[in-house]
Amino acid sequence: MDLRQLRYFVGIVQAGSLSRAADQMHVAQSALSHHLASLETELARQLVTRSPKGILLTEAGAVLYRHAEAILRDVEFAKRDAASVLDVPSGRVSIRFPAAWAAIVGYELFTRIRAAYPQILLHITYCNSSMRYERLVNCRLDIAVLFLDQPERGLVVEPLLMEELFYVTAEPDASPITLADVAARPLLMSGPGSGSQQVADQIFRTRGLNPTLIGELDALDPLCRAIASGIGGAILPWCALYDGTRRIALTSRRVADAELIRPVSICFPEVGQRNPAVDAVARTLRSLVEDLIERGIWQGVSLISGNQKSHLDRRSPIRIQN
To answer: Which of 106, 173, 185, 192 is the most exposed place for a label (fewest CB within 10 A)?
Structure first.
């Protein structure tokens, strides 16, 4: 039994006679008779009887007709659904950002995906760099934003931007500060797994400085609250201070004598093929980031592109391991 036999059988029943079915389906009547006989032989049941009024279904024929009609309908649905995947991206896409990106990127990306691709179920999470890397390589994520600017084993890396880190404090003075002055002040960190702490640790070691570390807070909100209370300062990207359409009442000070800059890329698992939904989310993320930078909403970053004017000195950026 195959789809062609079922299609011919349904056509015969719906036409009411072999001759009319042959005309409607543009198939020789002898071929229809042959396929009908093959079905009856395979099932060991008579499916139709012939009368002066045309074809009549037997009890077995009526059962087969109901199933055949449902099967052919499901086949058409399957063909349409498969074809629509090429035109309309759909399905679940999981993406992870650095925690500091949550306020400035998370909601805007979600709303843009909902408006442009309503059939995509977007799953957004935030975690430290090492966890994003591990989950991406193991194909437990579709997309991750990582601090990389070159290919890594197991990953497809698409450079996005360069991000500067600042000394963040509750003090109103926004003038540049030296690295030695930062090291001498009470310093809070966001945890050993964070990209900002890796950058800070590397530059302090390079300069032979021992920072006055007073605590580590992995979550961004309590970290910013601790800074706002005056307990200490921290080294963070500018976006960590962003809160919707306004900035938290903290001050970002550029480090005058050190380049605290890290590369940021959109990354994908090397194993497997990216589907249209994943590509759509990646394109939308890149477009959103470009828009935020061009409109001056996102400060302290510059796009990695030959066509974009650099806002940062890129001569010797800090490189970190994810």
So the answer is: 173
Q: Which of 43, 47, 48, 40 is nearest to 17 (CA)?
A: 48
Specify which residues 234 forms β-bridges with.
168, 188
Q: Could you say which DSSP state residue 101 is in?
A: G
**DSSP strand E in the chain: where?**
48-51, 54-57, 91-97, 120-126, 143-146, 155-169, 186-189, 212-216, 233-237, 242-243, 246-247, 251-253, 261-269, 301-303
Name the residue type at position 80: R
Structural domains in the chain, sorted by start: 3-87 (1.10.10.10), 92-303 (3.40.190.290)
Number of residues written out for the chain:
322
pLDDT, residue 84, reads 60
d(CA 189, CA 201): 10
pLDDT in tens, 267-283: 998 876 688 999 999 99
User: Cα separation of 142 and 279, whole Å?
Assistant: 10
Examine the pLDDT at 87 and tell me if it is beyond 70: no
> Among candidates 158, 199, 176, which has minimal Cα distance to 289?
158
